[in-house]
UniProtKB/TrEMBL annotation:
Name by which UniProt lists this protein: Nitrous oxide reductase accessory protein NosL
InterPro entries, sorted: N2O_reductase_NosL (IPR008719), TAT_signal (IPR006311)
Species lineage: Archaea, Methanobacteriati, Methanobacteriota, Stenosarchaea group, Halobacteria
Annotated PROSITE patterns: TAT
Domain of life: Archaea
Species: Halorubrum ezzemoulense
Length: 197
C-alpha cells in the first residue's frame, strides 16, 4: 500500500497520546490545588502569641492566668474567632474545641501546643498538686504533628489532668520517669484520650 492509502486512525491515536498526558497532568494539578484549599497547605500557618487578657475559647478562663499547656487551633474560616486562631488555656480545651468544631463542619488546618522542650518552665506545687508554668509567646508553641504528649501524669494544668507536650523524646522520657504518665503522638489524641484523663 502507498502512504496515500494508509488508514488515518493510527496517526490520530498518536496525536491523542500527548493530549491525554496533558489532561492527566491538568487533573493532577487541579487535585493538588483542591488539597491545598482543604488544609494541605497548612505548613505556611504559624503560631501567634496569645494576649494577656485573652479568654479561652472553650471554657472562658483567661489563658495567661493559669498553669500548664496552652493551645491554639487555626481554621480555614476565622469564625467565630473574628480573624484570629482559637486559643485555649489547656490541651484538654484545645482538643475538645477542635473535635466539636470539626463535628460542626469546620476545617482545622493547624493545631499548636506548648512545647515544653522549647521553654524554661517553672515547676511549682499548689494545694498538693504539681503544675508547670504556662507560656503564651509564639515561640513557645510547636505544631501538633511534631509533638509527643504525656497523658495521665502527676502534673496538672488549668483544667486539671492535662496533656504535657514535648518535641524532644529525651525530655519525654525524663518527664515520665519523674512524673509518670503515658506518652503518645499528639496526633493520636482523641475523645477517648480526654475522657481517660
Amino acid at each position: 500500500m502507498t502512504s496515500d492509502n494508509q488508514p488515518t486512525s493510527a496517526p490520530d491515536r498518536r496525536e491523542n497520546i500527548p493530549r491525554r498526558r496533558l489532561l492527566a497532568g491538568l487533573a493532577a494539578g487541579g487535585a493538588a490545588a483542591v488539597a491545598g484549599c482543604a488544609g494541605g497547605g497548612s505548613e505556611s500557618v504559624s503560631p501567634v502569641s496569645i494576649d494577656d487578657d485573652q479568654a479561652c475559647d472553650q471554657c472562658g478562663m483567661i489563658v495567661a492566668d493559669h498553669p500548664g499547656t496552652v493551645g491554639q487551633v487555626h481554621f480555614e474560616d476565622d469564625e467565630p474567632e473574628g480573624g484570629r486562631p482559637a486559643q485555649f488555656c489547656s490541651g484538654t480545651c484545645t482538643y475538645t474545641y477542635r473535635f466539636d468544631a470539626a463535628d460542626a463542619g469546620r476545617t482545622p488546618v493547624a493545631t499548636f501546643l506548648t512545647d515544653y522542650s522549647a521553654v524554661d518552665q517553672e515547676v511549682f506545687e499548689e494545694g498538693g498538686d504539681t503544675m508547670f508554668s504556662s507560656h503564651v509567646e509564639s515561640e513557645a508553641f510547636a505544631r501538633e504533628t511534631t509533638l509527643t504528649v504525656v497523658a495521665r501524669s502527676e502534673v496538672i494544668g488549668a483544667m486539671g489532668p492535662d496533656l504535657v507536650p514535648f518535641t524532644d523524646e529525651d525530655d519525654v522520657e525524663d518527664f515520665v520517669a519523674e512524673y509518670g504518665g503515658e506518652a503518645m503522638p499528639a496526633t493520636e489524641v482523641d475523645r477517648a484520650t480526654l475522657e481517660a484523663l
